[in-house]
Design brief:
Helices cover 25% and strands 21% of the residues. By secondary structure, it is of the alpha+beta class.
Length: 279
């Protein structure tokens, strides 16, 4: 699933191509794309017509178009969602779920989603923060991110520090890839009980997460296959700089010990057993 860097890359691309433009038409081609919009896909499409995109925003792994400085089209990419700029005369793609055209006649925007786990939702009055994601915490790049307060909350958790990093109500945007990479960078095992760690140590893990996500953002995010691309259809290149994620059996770039992969909930954890010893 795309994490903060990948979603931010998409948001920036959207901002470059759709800000200031009025929507002329909207077509929802698959009902699952609008399944979270309770009034249905026809209602969602109708609400978009005539709206001007006055900005874009993101909270963790969610992004949205700001419409007329008041409403929001909330978007989540799920496992395979793609927001792509496209010519209006391009044929409907096999996995195209929605398409938006603009009154200026320029390039349009389409939502492709092979696995249909992503979704679109119109939120009236949600320009500042759509109500469906009000429970999502700020991420480490947010100017109002209160790191000492987040550290204090994490310190109360008996669960492993990796579980805390993935808890989007504590801090958002971090998923499995960047949690593993941050923990490797900070030399902390993901199973270490958060409550057993000092506050400076927890803060160092958050700093590591911010650093690794900033590096990924500079590389256009992490692409393992064709399912994650930016709005122009280009892949990110941070996968070439990963240190542990997906590298089981390969030598740690810091100490040479072979990277280990273990089951973690319904996912996997990757770590160096020497640099990140269990405690």
């Amino acid at each position: 699933m795309p994490e903060l860097p990948e979603v931010e890359v998409v948001r920036r691309g959207l901002d470059d191509h759709v800000r200031g433009r009025m929507i002329a038409a909207a077509v929802i081609r698959h009902p699952r794309a609008a399944r979270r919009h309770m009034a249905g896909p026809e209602d969602l499409a109708a609400r978009m017509i005539g709206a001007t995109v006055t900005g874009t925003a993101r909270r963790g792994k969610y992004l949205w178009l700001i419409l007329d400085d008041r409403d929001a089209l909330l978007m989540h990419l799920g496992m395979s969602g793609q927001l792509l700029i496209t010519s209006s005369d391009v044929a409907v793609a096999p996995h195209e779920r929605a398409r938006f055209t603009f009154t200026d006649g320029g390039i349009g925007l389409r939502f492709d989603d092979q696995r249909t786990f992503g979704h679109l939702m119109y939120d009236e009055g949600g320009a500042g923060l759509p109500s469906p994601i009000a429970h999502i915490a700020r991420d480490p790049f947010d100017p109002q991110f209160d790191q000492p307060a987040v550290v204090a909350r994490i310190k109360t958790r008996r669960a492993g520090i990796k579980r805390a990093l993935l808890d989007q109500t504590l801090l958002s945007g971090i998923g499995n890839i960047y949690a593993d990479e941050a923990l490797w960078a900070a030399k902390v095992h993901g199973d270490t009980a958060a409550s057993s760690m000092t506050k400076p140590r927890i803060s160092a893990v958050i700093d590591a997460a911010r650093d690794v996500m900033a590096a990924a953002l500079a590389q256009g995010g992490t692409s393992f296959d064709s399912l994650y691309v930016d709005v122009a259809g280009s892949s990110g290149y941070f996968s070439r700089r990963l240190n542990v994620y997906g590298l089981a059996g390969q030598p740690c770039t810091r100490c040479g010990t072979l990277i280990v992969r273990e089951r973690f909930i319904n996912r996997s954890s990757h770590f160096c057993p020497v640099c990140q010893q269990k405690r």
